[in-house]
């Protein structure tokens, strides 16, 4: 448990370091405006701090998050049967035009008039 806490502390330090680098970059830009100099690039110490902070954040986010899920679909789908794989209740539609193909279909009142007006 102490390892997880240590990783969270280092992740926080990484975010604070990145925020400090952003503040330093903004402060440097303000300094250049006040001295009326052109901006060409950030100083090397700010760039190094940004890169190290990002690497720390990426590494410790992966450490803090925990175990990843398998990418292979077979691991998740092994317990499911073929009947449950194709079962999506949100795609059920009961009132559709396919009912007109049924031999026992009787059109509602007024539907006959609409159908004859569209026939050629």
From TrEMBL:
Keyword Signal belongs to the record: yes
Keyword NAD belongs to the record: no
Any one Gene Ontology cellular component term annotated for this protein: EMC complex
Listed InterPro entries: MMgT
Chain segments carrying region Disordered: 101-120
Organism superkingdom: Eukaryota
Family of the protein in this entry: Belongs to the membrane magnesium transporter (TC 1.A.67) family.
PANTHER family xrefs: ER MEMBRANE PROTEIN COMPLEX SUBUNIT 5, PTHR21181
Name of the protein described by the UniProt record: Membrane magnesium transporter
Species for this entry: Glossina fuscipes
Source lineage: Eukaryota, Metazoa, Ecdysozoa, Arthropoda, Hexapoda
Gene that encodes the chain: LOC119640547
């Amino acid at each position: 448990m102490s390892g997880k806490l240590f990783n969270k502390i280092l992740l926080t330090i990484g975010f604070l370091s990145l925020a400090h680098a952003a503040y330093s970059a903004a402060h440097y830009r303000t300094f250049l405006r006040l001295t009326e100099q052109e901006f060409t690039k950030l100083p090397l110490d700010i760039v190094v701090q940004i890169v190290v902070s990002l690497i720390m954040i990426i590494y410790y986010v992966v450490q803090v998050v925990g175990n990843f899920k398998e990418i292979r679909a077979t691991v998740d789908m092994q317990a499911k049967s073929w009947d449950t794989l194709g079962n999506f209740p949100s795609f059920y539609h009961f009132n559709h035009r396919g009912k007109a193909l049924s031999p026992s279909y009787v059109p509602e009142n007024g539907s006959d008039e609409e159908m004859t007006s569209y026939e050629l």
